[in-house]
Amino acid sequence: MKSVLFAALLAVASAVPLTATAAGMDPLVQEKVVYHVNDASVARVAMRNIENHLNASPGVKITVVTHGKGIDFLLNEAKDEKGAFAPQVAGLKDRGVIFDVCRNTLTGRKLDDSAVILEAQVVPSGVAEIGKLQAREGYVYLKP
Fold first, then answer.
1. What DSSP character marks residue 96?
2. Is the backbone of residue 34 left (phi > 0), alpha (psi -120 to 50) or beta?
3. Predicted model pTM
4. What confidence tens digit (pLDDT) does each residue in 20-41 have?
């Protein structure tokens, strides 16, 4: 009888989802994610992913790092067939998302910081920023 009861308890326990603590995750550690965009053709998808991420994980800290062709949606007056990118970027910034633009890319294109929308900031190197966020600040990496 005891073995049947034990088996039933084990079955119930295995069906219950693990909490963050039981799964080995510290619930006090903030979730931090870097989204890597190096092609502006995925900018809308990336921003939609970020909106979904923010909805699913309130309090998540998200940084979008762009370089190469990925900076294009963060330039002044950037738009696609759906319109200007700036309003969607501004909405995400209002929710705490940080947008980084690679200075190396700007320099290579002979652009200065004034070419970048106000909602974004310029960092010395996009790829170095991704490395720093992962190695020194504990961000996880996502590539839409």
1. T
2. beta
3. 0.81
4. 444 445 667 799 999 999 999 9
